[in-house]
Write a structure and sequence with these properties.
The complex is a heterodimer of chains A (640) and B (116). Chain A has 640 residues and is mainly alpha-helical. Chain A is built from 25 helices and two strands. The chains are: A mainly alpha (640), B mainly alpha (116).
Chain lengths: 640, 116
């Protein structure tokens, strides 16, 4: 019974996407019921799988139409769910559920909603299928469905300015990536005569790398990098997340880029098993570090709430890529933990941006301000998200970033490579810059003075707040109880990544992997000691003490200063020295004016990266070709 | 020999990439994407082909000792890929039409309102 769950979850979503357009084009209730049912079922099925897969350590294999392997050759399409797949499956199913829940109210002002739900359920089904499948070509099909559903969702509000343009750029870059992926898949088929990932993994160990498989490696890595939106193919992600309806941007930021991360992990650790090579580690860590730094510096420069969040999303994916590129068990733990946290807090922040857009009608940071009084709950949720993404204790971002710092630094000590120490410093700097730009957002959206046009703004409806609260609570739980979250979800996933033999045997029959892989290769070091790294209770106590001290100081300060405070002196601007005799009606430091000094001092750098994101589709295509060239040269030089 | 297929498909893919990277007209970008796709399809078919092989259909009576099939899997993959390619082109063209209505041009250097 249980082995049918994954395929049922994927099929429910695809089936529902057709049912929605059949029954939901006229009937609003039927549309909502079908969409919500379809998005709840995968979550329930994935949660049912936690016990057998995560705790008991089973690996579920399922052959479509019961086409089992014949004399050691996989001939059917297989689904294989190990702990890594299930880990990403849970993230994806949760995102689907919350995004659908949120969209019920958020999208209610648009028309042709049945088309929105068709595309959304297609996207969801494809993402879920991608992380659960065990077949490389099936993975390619899912990538294609995902890309085109995401492109169409980006263009959904095509009466506005950005969406069409963003969709076209996404389409061009996405289909270049898909073509590279397909070429890589077919070259592997040419060499090994199978499309099953487990069997490819085993056979590649026997044949070793030859020029064709090295070529395929470079192409597949390019394809998945384009899905993960790492530098230099990230500008399309920024455009798409900005232009899509927010519930779709949230789905894309939370789960679509995770498919790229999943693909890279699967490719490097299970299929090619090249993660032991220090050259591969250096490549992936370099790419990840550039991604995280460029993402956050671009975010500092933004004037739009959603675009800023999009660049932060790119930056956080950089953390994940850096961590998984270390090739150690600790690095993987940090990377996977951060991937999960990124889904929670980034999804939540996008939902906050959507709430602001819904209530105030704009996401331009220069036109917003003072919304904390009008939308107190959204403000609290936003602050939880901002603290989480900046890595402040006791929220979840701190735990995963701490693990990543620790992993990078230990790697530096272990390998004696000074570069990893520099990477650690960059990680901390990026975290500080993240905090800086979220101070900018909170100042220019929720605090400061309320512009006169936004007097009538009200809190968003309850059905939009519930998904935001669910994510906020999960952010706090994973931050305060990291040990439990770690043993329940991360540890099994890390073990699954580091034991490819089990993955191969579960699919091809036990003993299959032994023919190709010696036991020494198959048992890498997976000792992880979490204890001592992080004591959340102590940090929580410190946090409470600091908060109490701050409150007392603030209260005392108010009493002692009394009438001498600056605001009392100039209650009426008429008598102030530097005003022209008229009381200023509205004076607010806008989003663009924050951190002016930093931006002015580094104006050459900011100007340069601003110009690099030219918005011309040819440039972005050139960068996609460039990263492919880098990967191909790398795989020929270092893997052969 | 078979080598000419492989050279041809690589030339097609590179030409397609060149079109996408260099040509400023969005229609030409769409055509470029199509050309990349055709290159990949030819590659897939070439990999499955074997000289002298027959169609991969088991018909009792027609199979004699010595006959062999071309690999059927790449043909199935190519069909899928062709369908996807058609969808890409259709969708890209519809977006280009919408862009033309909105922006009044299909010059990619002028369609850059999202930048920086």
């Amino acid at each position: 019974m249980m082995q049918h769950f994954p395929v049922l979850a994927v099929m429910t979503l695809f089936l529902a996407s057709f049912l929605v357009v059949l029954f939901g084009s006229r009937n609003k209730v039927a549309r909502g019921v079908i969409a919500m049912t379809a998005s709840t079922v995968p979550l329930v099925l994935m949660i049912c799988l936690i016990k057998p897969v995560m705790i008991d350590g089973q690996i579920i294999s399922y052959w479509m139409g019961n086409w089992e392997p014949v004399s050691g050759w996989a001939i059917g399409i297989g689904y294989e769910i190990d702990a890594l797949s299930l880990f990403f499956g849970l993230i994806v199913a949760l995102t689907i559920f919350l995004s659908c829940f949120y969209s019920l109210k958020y999208m209610s002002r648009d028309d042709t909603l049945e088309k929105y739900y068709v595309l959304f359920l297609m996207l969801s089904g494809a993402v879920l299928g991608l992380v659960l499948t065990g077949d490389l070509f099936n993975m390619f099909i899912m990538i294609e469905i995902l890309t085109f559903a995401a492109v169409a969702l980006t263009a959904f509000r095509n009466n506005l300015d950005g969406p069409l343009e963003a969709a076209f750029k996404y389409l061009v870059i996405g289909s270049i990536g898909s073509s590279f992926t397909l070429t890589g898949v077919i070259l592997l088929y040419e060499q090994l005569h199978t499309l099953n990932m487990a069997q490819i993994g085993a056979l590649l160990q026997k044949t070793g790398m030859n020029p064709t498989t090295a070529f395929a490696f470079g192409l597949l890595l390019t394809g998945f990098s384009i899905k993960a939106f790492i530098v230099p193919v990230h500008p399309v992600a920024a455009d798409a997340y900005t232009a899509a309806p927010t519930s779709a941007s949230m789905a894309m930021a939370s789960m679509v880029n995770k498919t790229g991360v999943y693909g890279i992990i699967r490719l490097l650790y299970i299929i090619f098993m090249t993660m032991g090579l220090s050259s591969v580690q250096n490549l992936i860590v370099t790419i990840g570090t550039i991604t995280m730094f460029l993402g956050v510096t671009m975010a500092l420069n933004q004037h739009d709430f959603k675009r800023l969040l999009a660049f932060h999303s790119i930056s956080q994916i950089g953390y994940v890529i850096t961590a998984i590129g270390l090739g150690t068990a600790l690095g993987l733990s940090g990377g996977l933990y951060h991937a999960m946290n990124h889904t929670l807090f980034k999804g939540m922040l996008f939902l906050c941006a959507g709430a602001v857009l819904y209530a105030a009608g704009t996401t331009n940071l220069d036109k917003l301000g003072g919304l904390a009084k009008k939308m107190p709950q959204t403000c609290i949720i936003f602050l939880i998200g901002a603290f989480s993404i900046s890595g402040l204790p006791p929220f979840n971002g701190f735990v995963s970033k701490w693990l990543i710092y620790q992993a990078t630094y230990e790697k530096a000590a272990e390998s004696g490579n000074f570069g990893f120490a520099i990477v650690t410093v960059i990680e901390v700097v990026v975290s500080v810059l993240t905090l800086a730009s979220f101070i900018k957002v909170s100042q220019s959206v929720f605090f400061g003075e309320l512009p006169p046009e936004l007097e009538n703004v009200r809190e968003v409806p309850l059905s939009m707040r519930i998904p935001m609260w669910i994510m906020a609570v999960l952010c706090i739980i994973t931050g305060v109880l990291p040990g439990q979250a770690y043993t329940a979800l991360i540890q099994p996933a890390v073990n699954a990544v580091l034991s490819p033999v089990k993955y191969i045997d579960a699919m091809m029959g036990s003993g299959y992997a032994e023919q190709f892989i010696s036991a020494a290769d198959a048992a890498p070091d997976k000792s992880v000691v979490l204890a001592g790294y992080w004591q959340p209770i102590n940090w929580l106590i410190l946090f409470v003490v600091l908060l109490a001290a701050f409150t007392i100081v603030a209260l005392l300060g108010k009493n002692s200063r009394g009438a001498r405070s600056h605001s009392d002196e100039v209650t009426d601007g008429k008598y102030a020295t530097f005003y022209s005799g008229e009381k200023s009606e509205y004076s607010m430091v806008g989003g663009s004016d924050m951190f002016w000094g930093l931006k002015y001092n580094l104006r050459h750098y900011f100007g340069f990266i601003g110009e690099m994101h030219s918005g011309v589709v040819n440039d972005y295509a050139l960068w996609a070709v460039l990263i492919a060239a880098v990967y191909l040269v790398f795989s020929f030089v270092c893997l052969l | 020999m078979m080598l000419v297929n492989y050279i041809g498909c690589v030339i097609l893919m590179v030409l397609g990439l060149y079109t996408v990277v260099v040509k400023k007209n969005l229609m030409k970008s769409v055509i470029g994407l199509g050309i990349i796709d055709y290159g990949v399809n030819i590659l897939i078919i070439s990999i499955g082909y074997q000289k002298g092989g027959t169609a991969p259909i088991f018909t009792p009576g027609e199979i004699k000792p010595g006959t062999f099939f071309v690999d059927p899997i790449p043909q199935a993959l190519t069909l899928t890929s062709i369908v996807i390619g058609a969808c890409v082109t259709a969708m890209a063209l519809s977006i280009v039409i919408k862009i033309y209505k909105k922006y009044g041009t299909i010059d990619s250097t002028k369609i850059r309102r999202l930048n920086g």
